[in-house]
Amino acid sequence: MDQLTPVLQGFAVVLEPQNLLYCLVGVVVGMLIGVLPGLGPAATIAVLLPLTIGLEPVTSVIMLAGIFYGAQYGGTITSVLLRLPGEASSVVTVFDGYAMACQGRAGKALGIAAIGSFVGGTVSIVALSFVAPVVASFALDFGPPEYTALALLGILLVATVSGGGRVKALAAACVGLLLATVGRDGFTGAQRFTFGDLNLADGIDFVPIAMGLFGLGEILHALEERHRRVQAPPTLTRVWPDRADMRQASGAIGRGSVIGFVLGILPGGGAVLSSLAAYALEKRRSKTPERFGKGAIEGVAAPETANNAAATSSFIPLLTLGIPANATMAVIFGALLVQGVTPGPRLVDEDPELFWGVINSMYVGNILLLIMSIPMVGIFVRVLQVRGAILAPITVMVTLVGVYTVRSSVFDIGLVVAFGVLGYLMKKAGFDPGPLVLAFVLGSLLESNLRRSLLLFDGDPTGFLTRPISGVLFAAFAVVVLLPLTTRLLRGRRGGPRDDDRSGGRPDTKELV
User: Fold this and answer.
1) pLDDT at residue 421, rounded to an integer
2) What number of other Cβ atoms are within 10 A of residue 401's Cβ?
3) Is the dihedral of CA 15, 256, 433, 201 positive or negative?
4) CA–CA gap between residue 139 and residue 6 (Å, rounded)
5) What does the alpha-carbon distance between residue 166 and residue 158 come to, in Å, rounded to a whole number?
6) Closest among 265, 200, 258, 277 to 442, alpha carbons compared
């Protein structure tokens, strides 16, 4: 019973009127920030940081945490309705969410995303409450070799989430990896692929790439298609998932919760990897993987559940180890230090009210998000009934303003236009831009940890196999790569049909991952 006392005291802290109010303010601001492409939670929290100095530490962190996980759902809205992922973790949602919107099922997509986000967040909070110290100690075993193997697995998954064929997906991923190398070398300080332009010295930001490829590229392609044929506005059906939808998505929500919780703990791309892995797993398990990318409701439920679970579980290394898992956690870490609170193993014992108050506030925050999202789904869906001649310029304006607010850079606006043209050309040629964006996000994680690992092993690549976790991950990578080749070879010897023959000349993506 003594162990439950601090937990109950944490609920007492959350239910104080001031803390409830700031929890509501946090999730509302987070949802609004998620809707605006480009202005992510990290930038918002950094801007609002001076306003939290006069608040109590627990109150300020409750509000900042609400902004973080509220933005995860807010980013879903633009991903589904406008094909604009404001955060890297929302890229995967674009594939089936936007397809569902085009089919008049935007309400169901937003509804299942809200339910999945609530379930994923709640499951992650419960797990966080009970196993935080154990899981956090496991995360300490992850070093550069383990993150190298994890990033390689993530890039391999990129080919699975694409609907444009394996070869085209890998080609787009290679371009994404190349773009990730632009800028100053983190080890030597040398400039790479900047062509003497100081605007590229710090590399290319994620936002111009995502907004250009998905936003402007989609608009340009849609304008061309409109001239070729008359497009009627999509017929809006029910704006909430029915029982059949819930049965179809329930397994994806459950698996996404587990994947998101586990991968969200790992620093450096946990939310991105969790949404990507959850989507790839559902496509791999499905008996009809060809539905993915064309409006499969599991393709929305799995990544949305996973990224919200990851947003919650990323508080484990921050509060128990003092290690920020991502950029947003780093800003919240700074907020704690400003308040005179030092996150770490002693926080649970020295300041249990703050520790359990922040964790239990997430229960309340997730309930508030679900309550707010239910009546607003119908309002959001009405966006699709706006004429394309009106919606397209508004989308372009929101995209450009959102990109400019990140770094106040006119150069970034030029990048958006350039990547918009690239996205249009990729769409015309049958390339999916998703693998390029995801590989770009994982590229910096792969390069930095690969080079650190080689320095650790004195240049000996076999060192990866001497560490248990990285060795297992590389073995899994080898199995995933070799298994389809072995299966195809055995079928060829038995005289069975080849994958290329069954898929109209394209490789069968069901066999990859």
Assistant:
1) 92
2) 14
3) positive
4) 25
5) 9
6) 277
Number of domains making up the chain: 1
Q: How far apart are CA 334 and CA 53, in angstroms?
A: 11
Can you give the pTM of this predicted structure?
Answer: 0.70
Q: How far apart are CA 375 and CA 239, in angstroms?
A: 10
Inter-residue contact 507 to 171 (CB < 8 Å):
no
* β-strand pairing of 191-192 with 183-184: antiparallel
Amino acid at position 405, single letter: T
Work out the mean pLDDT of the chain and round it to a whole number: 78
- The whole domain housing 357 covers 5-511
State the number of CA atoms in the 13 A half-sphere of 168 facing the CB: 19
Scored b (16 or more CB within 10 A) or e, 424-440 reads: bebbeeebbbbbbbbbb
Distance CA 113, CA 300 (A): 6
**pLDDT, mean of each 10-residue run, the chain (513 residues):** 68 88 89 68 70 82 86 78 73 88 86 89 83 61 81 73 71 89 85 87 83 79 61 54 88 92 71 84 87 90 90 80 69 79 75 84 88 74 67 77 78 91 88 81 83 88 86 81 74 58 41 34
* Cα separation, 447 vs 445, whole angstroms: 6
Tokens representing 146?
A: 């383990």
Pick from 365, 366, 374: which is nearest to 24 by CA? 365
The 8-class DSSP code of residue 322 comes to: -
Q: What residues contact 408, with CB distance under 8 A and at least 6 apart?
A: none
